[in-house]
Amino acid sequence: MAASLFKWFFAGICLLSGGRAAHPFYVSVTEIDHKAKDKTLEVSCKLFTNDFEAALEKWAHGKVDLTHPKDRPAMDKMIGDYVLAHLRIRVDGHAVPLHMIGSEQEAEATWSYFEADGIPSVKRIDLSNSLLYDTFDQQINIMHVTVAGTRKSTRLNRPDTEAYLEF
């Protein structure tokens, strides 16, 4: 659902901007899924590639090409370092250490994937999300969290960085 909404949203933005990659909206989508059986949290972040490149270039002080990186492991490390510096999760009052699984390109978006182990249940999830806030004043970060089949969503508009959901 989120993937198709993201594609629709991006297609609409491209039409409004004459098909160019530049667009007037700056949005990220973070999906968090609790897998009770495995006691894990699976986290995926989807960002417009050109926006993400601009943020990474500013953050790393150099040119970034997410579509055709010269060194994929180094690029994944940069992506992971950036996301982990801007996305923090607490479950039931405890910080959740995320580790990066990888990243991939999809059309005009970049997906990055993370996982956390040792999470048997989730009653409350506290989110701190400032992805791309350092680059775009109009940034909006949408987060969808699924726990025990129940999906809840929230949105953060820059400068707001904190949100929580209870299950």
Question: Could you walk me through the main structural features you see in this protein, from its secondary elements to its overall organization?
Answer:
- By secondary structure, the protein is α+β, with helices and mostly antiparallel strands.
- The chain has a domain at 27-106.
- Helices cover 25% and strands 43% of the residues.
- The protein contains three helices and ten strands, in the order αββααββββββββ.
- The longest helix is centred in the N-terminal third of the chain and has 15 residues, at 2-16.
Secondary structure layout plus pairing:
Blueprint: H1 2-16, E1 26-35, E2 40-48, H2 49-60, H3 72-86, E3 87-91, E4 94-95, E5 99-106, E6 109-117, E7 124-129, E8 139-147, E9 150-157, E10 162-166
Parallel strand pairs: 1-8
Antiparallel strand pairs: 1-2, 2-6, 3-4, 3-7, 5-6, 7-10, 8-9
Shape: globular
Number of strands: 10
SS content category: alpha+beta
The helix content, as a percent range, equals 25-40%
Q: Give helix and strand order, one letter per element, not per position.
A: HEEHHEEEEEEEE
Unreliable runs: 1-20
Number of helices: 3
- Beta percentage is 35-45%
